[in-house]
Design goal:
The complex is a heterodimer of chains A (447) and B (304). With 447 residues, chain A is mostly helical. Chain A is built from 15 helices and no strands. In chain B, 70% of the residues lie in helices and 1% in strands. In chain B, a hairpin with a 4-residue loop joins strand 1 and strand 2. The chains are: A mainly alpha (447), B mainly alpha (304). At the A-B interface, helix 3, helix 4, helix 5, helix 6 and helix 7 of A face helix 1, helix 2, helix 3, helix 4 and helix 5 of B.
């Protein structure tokens, strides 16, 4: 999946090289003979700067005119001429008449090719506007309708134990659902993170026929509908073993859902770790385990964190596996192994099943909390995962550089008092000097 | 070998899911036999159950979702890859990813409380003027056309629109990736020959991204088939094949499972598992076809 945006391997700067950095600082920029000189612009006659990328007045008039005409026609049709109603219908009619007017206006001046270009561009832009308008509208609609419930502080501190459907919004809250979500996702993450990332390491570092088989199975599992994952846990764990719905069963269902997502995302990230880093580690004689732990995982750390956070966002928002496994309750339950434990998405679903306006308002409030939680996770993932593997922030780069510099000093200090033995005995084997056999554990340079 | 153990555990979990489903489903399948695919009713207690109506509903919702999602995602993917530039492109990519993270229950709420009321006039208009096409007709059993708004609620049409919006991010990101791999040299060649931007897109970007378009569409289809909670919130379940897409009542496999699992007996659960297994197999086939198409279209573009 391409949810994550990565750069191709090698595009980044894999590891800072202290020697080059230091050399750069030591050598100040001195304008020498080999530098390019730019002629003084004052002496060369230039015409007025042409604007290549801006639309002409004509084009802008066409666009704005067609927009106004489309809106006007739709309003006229809906208000007076025909008995059409509904805001969605208005938008559809306005858009279609806008397109018609735009074709007409453009065709007055331009030829067929250009008309096609303009209209297709307009279509693409309107697809984008429609999509992002819908996204922003869905988010804003939830937040606005949920505001009613969110402004009451008790919504975050009380449970629904004492609040019935007819009670005002000043009574009752969703703290039990928030706690339930946190417990369930924590259990799911405690299983998913080690298992998922280790499997991804296995796919990338070990390889072979079995790894290909594992990858195929993991790909297949991303096709598993979430409700079927819930049904599996319901039949395999609840009916056969625990005989009751519990937070643990819900966490298992979320795990089955999240595991393939995390494996695939981490697999993609690990694949982007530059091969020469691995080869360098192997060439220095480190074992596979040590290479993975000290080179591959630290290099891909930000990408892995992003993979896990995006998987978490998906796992938190899934309703259907939880619907079958966790059970509905109105009271706080912090024991995941006994009794039903509700979570945020299920609470939304449960609230809006009721026809009471207050319950629907609570449902929207809960959905707004869930949405804000997911958006926060997403924003955190963006901040951490904005960089490709191996790319460091300024602070990290500085830290890595100084660590390398310390290493350099330490090594030179060690090797200084023990110079190479004089080569006076030509036939004797040269003894290896102690500094070069220093145990690698003493180097803690992972960024 | 820690990593090997992890790989084995993962495979173990996943094979366990598949095997468990198959074994439990075989109880019901051995009773119903081939009729499972042709029977419309769902009453495992009387041994007459089948997924003909449910599967038809699932597929109709998914197809409507594709009609909504594919043009939107195609346009957006081209917008991101070829029209927008600089910071706007980065912003659009972020928004698409963000849309993928919005929980489905939120989309369901929006569809139920906002979209349904506002899209019914459109559905009424379509059925009034295009009712002569069987798909858009809304009529009662006697064949008289219905115009009352209550005949248009909870339809496959509304569910399909909501699911369509939910699958757009998946499709867009696959298509965008395929489009951005169209070679720069050929783009510039087309422009240098005097082609307009749309001409360049039509002759270079879309032919190169064809695998991405097909693969992205099918990946979205796989998600649309398995979508549960938004569909469950919107539709009103029926157990006959409803060819009138705008009319109240449809069904889907995942909504059926969510509806019936609680009251199901041991045998009923096995029947639900069979339905879930069929859904899983369908999405599996769709997804593998999609990823093989995407992978083949990419071959040679990059080395691994």
């Amino acid at each position: 999946m391409s949810i994550l945006t990565q750069r191709p391997p090698g595009a980044g700067d894999p590891l800072p090289n202290p020697a080059i950095d230091l050399a750069d600082f030591d050598d100040p920029d001195t304008p020498g003979d080999g530098r390019t000189t730019i002629p003084d612009p004052g002496t060369v006659a230039t015409g007025p700067r042409r604007r290549l990328r801006q639309a002409t007045l004509d084009e802008r008039f066409n666009l704005v005119g067609a927009l106004i005409a489309g809106v006007a026609l739709a309003t006229a049709l809906f208000g007076w001429i025909t008995p059409m109603t509904g805001s969605v219908g208005w938008v559809v009619v306005a858009f279609l008449s806008f397109l018609g007017f735009y074709v007409l206006l453009t065709a007055l001046r331009a030829e067929r090719q250009e008309v096609a270009d303009k209209v297709m561009t307009a279509l693409m832009v309107s697809a984008g506007i429609l999509l992002f308008g819908a996204l922003i509208f869905v988010v804003a609609y939830t937040l606005v309708r949920g505001r009613e419930a969110l402004v009451n502080l008790n919504f975050f501190t009380q449970t629904m134990e004492l609040a019935g459907p007819l009670d005002p919004l000043e009574l009752g809250g969703i703290v039990h659902a928030i706690v339930g979500t946190l417990i369930q996702i924590s259990i799911a993450l405690a299983i998913t993170i080690p298992l998922g990332i280790t499997t991804a390491v296995f796919l990338n570092e070990v390889g072979g026929r079995f790894a290909r088989f594992v990858r195929t199975i993991a790909d297949a599992m991303t096709a598993l509908p979430s409700i079927v994952a819930g049904l599996f846990v319901y039949a395999a764990i609840i009916q056969l073993i625990t005989h009751q719905r519990s937070g643990f069963a819900a966490a298992m269902a979320i795990t089955v859902m999240m595991l393939p997502i995390v494996i695939r995302a981490s697999d993609v990230v690990l694949r982007l770790v530059a091969g020469n880093l691995r080869e360098a580690a192997y060439a220095l004689g480190s074992s596979r385990w040590r290479t993975v732990w000290h080179v591959v995982l630290p290099t891909a750390r930000s990408g892995l964190v992003t993979a896990v956070i995006l998987g978490t966002a998906r796992g938190i928002g899934e309703t259907s596996p939880v619907l079958l496994t966790s059970g509905v309750t109105a009271v706080m339950n912090v024991n995941p192994f006994s009794g039903p434990m509700i979570s945020l998405p299920l609470q939304v679903f449960d609230f809006v099943k009721s026809p009471e306006p207050n319950m629907v308002a609570r449902g929207f409030g809960t959905a707004a909390v869930l949405l804000l939680l997911v958006l926060t996770l997403f924003a955190v993932a963006r901040v951490i995962g904005g960089r490709g593997p191996g790319q460091l922030s300024t602070r990290q780069r500085r830290a890595a550089t100084s660590a390398s510099f310390d290493d350099l000093k330490r090594m030179s200090r060690r090797s200084a008092p023990a110079p190479l033995p004089p080569v006076t005995v030509p036939d004797a084997p040269v003894p290896i000097t102690p500094p070069f056999t220093a145990p690698p554990q003493s180097r803690e340079t992972s960024p | 070998m820690v990593t090997f153990t992890a790989g084995t555990t993962t495979v173990g979990i996943m094979l366990a899911v598949g095997l468990f489903l198959s074994i439990r489903a075989s109880d019901a399948l051995s009773v119903s036999g081939f009729a499972f695919l042709t029977e419309q009713q769902w009453s495992p207690e009387t041994q007459t159950f089948g997924i003909a109506a449910i599967l038809a509903g699932t597929v109709s919702i998914a197809l409507i979702a594709m009609c909504v999602g594919v043009p939107l995602s195609l346009g957006t993917a081209l917008l991101i890859s070829d029209v927008a530039g600089g910071r706007l492109r980065g912003l659009l990519v972020t928004l698409v990813d963000l849309m993928a993270a919005v929980p489905s229950v939120v989309f369901g709420l929006w569809g139920l409380f906002f979209l349904q009321g506002n899209v019914i006039p459109v559905a009424q208009w379509i059925s009034t003027y295009f009712g002569w096409i069987p798909l858009f007709r809304v009529a009662d059993d006697a064949g008289t056309a219905l115009t009352d708004a209550s005949a248009f609620t909870s339809s496959a049409f509304i569910a399909g629109i909501v699911v369509g919006l939910m699958v757009v991010p998946t499709q867009t990101s696959v298509m965008r990736e395929a489009f951005s791999q169209a070679p720069v040299g050929e783009r510039e060649a087309a422009l240098a020959l005097g082609s307009s931007r749309w001409g360049m897109i039509r002759t270079v970007v879309i032919p190169f991204g064809r695998g991405g378009i097909i693969g992205g569409t099918m990946l979205g289809l796989g998600r649309a088939l398995g979508e549960t909670i938004a569909v469950y919130m919107i539709i009103s379940p029926i157990f006959t094949i409803n060819g009138e897409l705008l009319k109240t009542g449809t069904n889907s496999v995942s909504a059926l499972i969510a509806l019936r699992y609680g009251e199901a007996s041991e045998f009923g659960l096995s029947a639900l598992m069979a339905a879930g297994l069929v859904l899983f197999i369908i999405t599996l086939v769709v997804n593998f076809t999609a990823s093989s198409i995407v992978a083949r279209s990419r071959s040679g573009a990059e080395t691994d």
